[in-house]
């Protein structure tokens, strides 16, 4: 099978971005006995979705999308995170911002609740809390400051205390017992599909971003939206097998995107970005950890201290920057 620009620029560009182990359909012309010239490359892709054009009647309801708290790291931005909590409690911001905080019903965390232990060589030198149980105890105490009317959805990431292979189960109660005791907390796996007031949100930490960047030309950690679009086009959250992302040998592939979401929420690379793909809202939330040596070595520019406010009636989003105290006086 041959892909050339002359046969079709679109098919050629898609072929350059094909990932190993991906399932696609090819429309081709037979040129010789064993030679086919590709004309069109068709991925499973997601259907076009019609997003809400206007707000539904009634009081607005919001969800806040965040990820990568990394509690226990010396780089955890506790002052900034407490500013975020103070806003949710109606203690910071102008009148409009406080009104918005009062309408927040959910906080959804897409993984890396804590920094973990032994995740990478030399991590112990970068920990402020070198005990995994204590990390979960302390972050639970911090999250207990959320308002009583806010429900908390917690999904794990590669730094959390559960198996690394995807799909990841919820962090076991053995480690994260204090989180299970929080009123309104929901401990889920990675990935997970949740429904908030009829809006389906696919929550995935983004573990396989590392493999995609190393294989697909043009992809970059600075542009998470392109990787998210490619996942949706492939209808799979980890299309590449046998690289850095371990996959559990389950009887059924639970990483296939069978049900099309309204919102696709990821994290992992600490870069905040919002966009759309075929009517699906894409949100890669930032982090609450300062720039790490690992990120500097790879030229990744994180955007920490930001939360994405999602209107569940219109699917409009707003990025809130808590690193700027002058905005929250």
Main attributes of the structure:
alpha/beta; 2 domains; 8 helices; Purple Acid Phosphatase, chain A, domain 2; 329 residues; six-stranded mixed β-sheet; 13 strands; single chain; five-stranded mixed β-sheet
Walk me through the structure.
It is a single chain. With 329 residues, the chain is of the alpha/beta class. The protein has 2 domains: 9-42, no CATH class; 62-328, Purple Acid Phosphatase, chain A, domain 2 (4-Layer Sandwich). 22% of the residues lie in helices and 22% in strands. The chain is built from 8 helices and 13 strands. The strands form 3 sheets. A 6-stranded mixed β-sheet has the order 6-5-4-3-12-13. Strand 5 (151-155), helix 5 (173-180) and strand 6 (185-187) form a beta-alpha-beta unit. Helix 4 packs parallel to helix 5. The radius of gyration is 21 Å and the shape is globular. The chain starts with 8 loop residues before the first helix and ends in an 8-residue tail after the last strand. The relative contact order is 0.18. The model has no long low-confidence stretch (mean pLDDT 92).
Query: Low-confidence runs (pLDDT<50, min 5 residues)?
Result: none
The domain count comes to: 2
Evaluate the radius of gyration.
Answer: 21 Å
> Would you identify the CATH architecture of the largest domain?
4-Layer Sandwich
CATH class of the largest domain, named: Alpha Beta
Backbone shape: globular
Helix content: 10-25%
The strands making up the biggest β-sheet line up spatially as 6-5-4-3-12-13
CATH-defined topology of the largest domain? Purple Acid Phosphatase, chain A, domain 2
Strand content: 15-25%
> How many E strands?
13
Secondary-structure class: alpha/beta
> How does the major sheet shape up?
6 strands, mixed
Mean pLDDT: 92
> How far from one another are the termini?
62 Å
